[in-house]
Amino acid sequence: MRTLPNRTPASPWSKADLEAVSFRVLHVLDHSWPVLDGYAQRSRSIIKAQSEIGMLPRVVTGPLHEIDDPASEEITLDDIRYSRSPIGDGMAARAIRQRWPVLREFAVVRTLRRRLESLLAAEHFDLMHAHSPALCGLAAWQASRATHTPFVYEIRSFWEDSDLAARKSAGKRLRYRLSRDLETFVVRRAGAVIGISRSILQDLQQRNIPDSKLYCVPNGVDASRFMPRPRDAALTSSLQLDGVPTLGFLGTFFPWEGVPWLVRAAAKLHETGVKFKLLIIGDGAEASNVRRAIAETSSGAFVSYLGRIANADVERYYSVMDVLVYPRRKVRIAELVTPLKPLEAMAAGKAVLGSDVGGIRELVDPEVTGLLFSPEDISDFCSQAERLLRNAALRDSLGNRARQKMLEDRDWRVLARGYESAYRAAAVGRDTKHPEERCSEPQTL
């Protein structure tokens, strides 16, 4: 395997350089494993899959990783080195730890930029791959200018959309506007831009970002890990699930996921006489509201909130769930961002029931690989859930087709190839896409 020769503005890489390249990539992340969330899981999956297809990835995380992982240290994971950006001491450290507005963001970018420049001086990389949020992209752009190292920027969600109340007060409206402007600033300066959904790329097109810069690498799944498994007998017994079809939610309780709403919808479904159990697994900002909804609906007899589970046990819990439910609310972030968890369930051969919002709609082909219901519509939810709970053959049919779709289109080893065109475009500073690779066309997903 070979890497590209050092590139300067006066000596761009030749076509021959690009044809047999094994890109040496420095991934720039906000945080990573051992932090357990969808961001860290996607990052690890991408980087591992790139290594398996012959690329040479390396990782550095920003200083905010240390906030989530106080015992943070440099690690080797999947035979890939992960470096950190220590917060250290002094005023910048205080700004980060105490979340001083504006100064915190400035300190994060400066700390990460210095770490990137240090790594780029010590080792050779063909390019940097900065992953959202925009602070990572801004630091990568600054390091790119200083070292003449190309960079691509990947957007998983827009930073400004993380606060659902961002437009309700003057202060939050200003923060929203500044966050949006920063995102656009970074996108314009990246050599190529990758989005995880068509909706994200369509939003960028509305900001007058040229289509020639936009690439799609959607969310994926490790289909060799998540696969159909026999029902775990011990878990079935301990959770008292024998003979009862089971709905399940497994994930992080972000406000837009609608988990408290799911509890209330399940209570209405139970009132119709349908027999089922609902397992809720995970934690997050809405955890107290989930507990409150269970208490207020007196649904503890058929709804079990299990909290966090060990990552190694995830497959066991999938095995005892018959239908996985994703009740996302109809808000902008849910329309734009595709979640990871439905792909795990589909790879495991499970029936999926999701709300009909953009991020779910990109994953589920209605009546083929899953069912959809109108978002936040309890009546429609009950109707679709009852169909699945009463019809095991329908569940099996949907699950089998979903599994096949994951194998064909969504395994990470397949998706990792999608980065090659974006990397080449960034490397030579121009569009290298074939027409069939353009992100604006739905078939690329």
CA gyration radius, whole angstroms = 22 Å
The helix content, as a percent range, equals 40-55%
Average pLDDT figure: 88
Bulk shape = globular
- The CATH topology of the largest domain is given as Rossmann fold
CATH architecture of the largest domain: 3-Layer(aba) Sandwich
- Given as residue ranges, the uncertain stretches (5+ residues, pLDDT < 50) are 1-20, 430-445
Oligomer designation: single chain
Determine the CATH superfamily of the largest domain.
Answer: Glycogen Phosphorylase B
Overall domain count? 2
Distance linking N and C termini: 29 Å
Class of the largest domain in CATH? Alpha Beta
Q: What is the number of helical segments per DSSP (H or I, 4+ residues)?
A: 19
Could you describe the largest sheet, including whether it forms a barrel? 8 strands, mixed
Number of strands: 14
